[in-house]
Task: inverse folding
């Protein structure tokens, strides 16, 4: 049976692409923006502190993937979904100075944040929905006394965000 070389080449290239993606995925370095499992966000006290934490994580094998900075927040996003950031004083005040945030992916962040706030209120906790912390970004926060120093945030998938700046090692 005769199989043209171009078919063999095409199948080989396809196999190599799938193998490379699978290897990256299994090593915790999925090159695609999906599946988007949300994020765990930790806030530092200053830009210098953020740089020190990023360097410390790099020294311990946790590599930075992107930086996604705005006027209010400087973010370093890692391959595993961890985010190390530092915020300006206005942002910190609006969110009651959180040290951390649990980021959850939602098709409708406002609806999800309101549902989460209602859920927490039903259980006797306070919960406030905070909109437009970073205008133009699809992120909505829930500030509650259910946590100490932590907030929830609901956001659209990363494909709905402005393109981040890749980081080269």
Result:
């Amino acid at each position: 049976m005769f199989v043209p070389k171009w078919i063999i080449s095409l199948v080989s290239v396809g196999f190599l692409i799938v193998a490379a993606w699978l290897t990256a995925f299994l090593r915790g370095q999925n090159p695609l923006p999906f599946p988007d499992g949300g994020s765990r966000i930790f806030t530092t006290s200053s830009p210098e502190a953020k740089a020190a934490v990023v360097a410390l994580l790099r020294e311990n094998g946790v590599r930075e993937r992107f930086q996604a900075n705005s006027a209010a927040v400087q973010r370093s996003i890692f391959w595993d979904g961890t985010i190390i950031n530092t915020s300006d004083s206005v942002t910190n005040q609006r969110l009651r100075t959180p040290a951390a945030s649990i980021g959850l992916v939602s098709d409708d962040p406002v609806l999800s944040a309101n549902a989460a706030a209602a859920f927490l209120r039903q259980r006797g906790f306070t919960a406030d929905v905070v909109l437009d912390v970073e205008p133009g970004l699809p992120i909505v926060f829930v500030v509650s006394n259910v946590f100490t120093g932590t907030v929830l945030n609901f956001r659209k998938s990363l494909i709905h965000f402005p393109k981040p700046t890749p980081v080269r090692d």
The chain has a mean pLDDT of 87. Helices lie at 5-26, 47-59, 89-94, 109-122.
